[in-house]
Amino acid sequence: MMPEEVSLSGRFYRITFATDAHRVLGGVIHPEGRFHHNDQPAFYCSPTPEAATAAVKVYAKPDDPPRVIIPLDVTNARICDLRKPETCAALGIQMDTPSIPWMSQRANGIPATSWQASDAVRASGMDGMIYTCRRKPRLRWHLVLFHWNTAGHAQVRATTPQEFIL
After folding, report:
1. Phi and psi, residue 120, nearest 5°
2. Is 112 in contact with 37 (CB distance < 8 Å)?
3. What is the spatial distance between Cα 92 and Cα 32, in angstroms, rounded to a whole number?
4. CB of 143 within 8 A of CB of 153?
5. DSSP letter string over 110-164?
6. How many other C-beta atoms can be found within 10 angstroms of the C-beta atom of residue 43?
7. In the prediction, which pLDDT does 5 show?
8. CA nearest neighbour of 129 among 146, 112, 105, 148
């Protein structure tokens, strides 16, 4: 069964190091993360500055260089909404699959359970997915794109970076 396709366009936000702002549209710089592995492309962003801040706080260190928040305009994204039980069922994953902490699994040499969700969405041909915040799943959500800025896929345009203090 194919998951329901949701069309998504709107303003999103991404926080990055100020020195990396010029490459924000390139996506992730690490070979693996919550929803990407083996150098898969991924572009993480959030629907509000507050949600973007919450997402970054987990990874922030006291000696990190300055960061900026970059408003983004996302258009024509075909996504799976993993907040919906029927979408997870169609993808063959459990509702909690995207929320299982991945870093401790990777530290123990185990493939991240959350990769099952992203791999299923990638296999469906969708551009990406909505997933909930682990700490406040009813209040906050984020977007990760796997295909963007190529013909027939989601388009992302960055606007002027704004100073950001974490």
Report:
1. -65, -40
2. yes
3. 22
4. no
5. PPPTHHHHHHHHHHHT-SEEEEE-SS-TTT-EEEEESSBSSTTSBEEEE---EEE
6. 25
7. 93
8. 146
**Confidence (pLDDT) at 139:** 61
CA 36 to chain centre: 9
For residue 137, the model assigns a pLDDT of 54
Q: What is the 3-state secondary structure (H, E, C) of 58-121?
A: CCCCCCCCCEEEEEEEEEEEEEEECCCHHHHHHHCCCCCHHHCCCHHHHHCCCCCCHHHHHHHH
Query: Model's pTM, two decimal places?
Result: 0.93
Rounded Cα–Cα distance for residues 24 and 74 (Å):
13
CA nearest 43: which of 141, 129, 110, 136? 129
CA distance 57 to 83: 22
Say how far apart CA 109 and CA 91 lie, in whole Å.
Answer: 25
Domain boundaries along the sequence of the chain: 6-164
The stretches in the chain having pLDDT less than 50 are none
Take residue 27 and report the two structure tokens written for it. Answer: 């996506």
